[in-house]
């Protein structure tokens, strides 16, 4: 069945069905699968993304695990934030927005990875800050109860991906990041009712919107902007696609000041990342960082149903930063030994 999927992908005459993907996974066992064929499947997927039907069938074939389709108790009103990655490099805006929104009272799960496209993904940042990711759903729900914020570990992703990675060794999964970044937001088994997914310039917006519309587990909000970054930008023209199919456009000065540029959001060297991140939560980096983080936090409030208007949600997020609540939440989660010193180093 590995050959069947590969041939279908190469011909591009028809979509790969869920049944074909199921056969692919069934054949993915030691001694029964050619590593070259599996690498060929992944290369085909990443080099030229297949049609939406093939992507939807892939997503269907790997989840949800254990037949669970209902929302776990305690996950009501929770929103997951995850982007497609791959766009212009910025500081970790989405992780900062998760802290700000959680400190404002919205329950947030942050999923992410070591990033196939950037130098410092959310897991890398959290690791440097000494904040652990969760190992299972129960732990995620417990973190949500305790602080309103949880960082879900790699357990949320299907075991099939682990089998893929083991099959293609020594080839790494990073080589196939474009495909993985597009399907990633839709294959994670996250205890959340809603989801906010930003789309970068490297991901096909139309396809991501279709994947979001076809997603059954969560109500997915999709965002994009004219800079190609996978988060909302306070100085850009932003598009927000709601789960009901409607779209709204946030002009640069419609909520925030509209001033700033992409360079204001540039990442810092990894050794300075934690200190810079905490400064962003305190609102002391620069105006563009503060406004952009708060705009994304506002989107989380909107997706969770905790605010009905963008100005109201944005003001709430700003209060979370200016009132010191976001910084206090971070301080409560970061171990003393990992907190940055005066020079920004732990």
Tell me about this structure.
This protein folds into two domains: 1-61 and 157-187, Transferase, Pyrimidine Nucleoside Phosphorylase, Chain A, domain 3 (Up-down Bundle), CATH 1.20.970; 79-152 and 188-338, Pyrimidine Nucleoside Phosphorylase, Chain A, domain 2 (3-Layer(aba) Sandwich), CATH 3.40.1030. It has a seven-stranded mixed sheet with strand order 3-2-1-4-5-6-7, sandwiched between helices. The protein is built from 14 helices and seven strands. Helix 5 (93-103) crosses helix 14. By secondary structure, it is of the alpha/beta class. The chain has helices at residues 2-11, 18-27, 35-47, 52-61, 93-103, 122-129, 137-147, 159-168, 177-187, 205-213, 273-282, 287-304, 310-322, 325-333; strands spanning 79-81, 108-110, 149-151, 194-198, 219-225, 238-241, 247-250. The mean pLDDT is 91. Helix 5 (93-103) links the parallel strand 1 and strand 2 (108-110).
């Amino acid at each position: 069945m590995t050959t069947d999927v590969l041939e279908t992908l190469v011909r591009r005459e028809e979509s790969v069905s869920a049944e074909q993907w199921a056969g692919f996974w069934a054949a993915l066992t030691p001694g029964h699968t050619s590593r070259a064929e599996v690498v060929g499947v992944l290369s085909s997927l990443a080099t030229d993304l297949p049609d939406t039907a093939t992507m939807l069938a892939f997503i269907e074939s790997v989840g949800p695990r254990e037949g669970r389709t209902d929302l776990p108790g305690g996950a009501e009103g929770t929103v997951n934030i995850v982007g497609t990655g791959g766009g212009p490099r910025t500081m970790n805006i989405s992780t900062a927005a998760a802290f700000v929104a959680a400190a404002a009272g919205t329950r947030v799960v942050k999923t992410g990875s070591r990033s196939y496209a950037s130098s410092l993904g959310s897991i890398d940042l959290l690791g440097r800050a000494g904040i652990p990711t969760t190992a299972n759903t129960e732990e995620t729900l417990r973190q949500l109860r305790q602080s309103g914020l949880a960082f879900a570990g790699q357990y949320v992703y299907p075991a099939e991906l682990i089998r893929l990675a083991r099959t293609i060794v020594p080839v790494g999964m990073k080589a196939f990041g474009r495909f993985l970044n597009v399907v990633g937001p839709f294959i994670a088994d996250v205890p959340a009712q809603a989801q906010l997914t930003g789309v970068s310039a490297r991901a096909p917006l139309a396809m991501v919107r279709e994947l979001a519309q076809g997603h059954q587990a969560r109500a997915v909000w999709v965002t994009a902007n004219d800079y190609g970054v996978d988060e909302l930008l306070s100085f850009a023209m932003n598009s927000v696609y709601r789960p009901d199919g409607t779209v709204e456009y946030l002009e640069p000065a419609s909520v925030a000041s509209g001033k700033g540029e992409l360079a204001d959001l540039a990442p810092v060297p990894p050794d300075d990342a934690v200190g810079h991140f905490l400064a962003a939560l305190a609102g002391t980096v620069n105006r563009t960082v503060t406004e952009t983080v708060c705009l994304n936090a506002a989107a989380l409030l909107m997706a969770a149903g905790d605010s009905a208007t963008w100005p109201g949600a944005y003001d709430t997020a700003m209060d979370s930063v200016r009132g010191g609540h976001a910084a206090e939440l971070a301080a409560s989660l970061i171990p003393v030994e990992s907190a940055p010193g005066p020079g920004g180093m732990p």
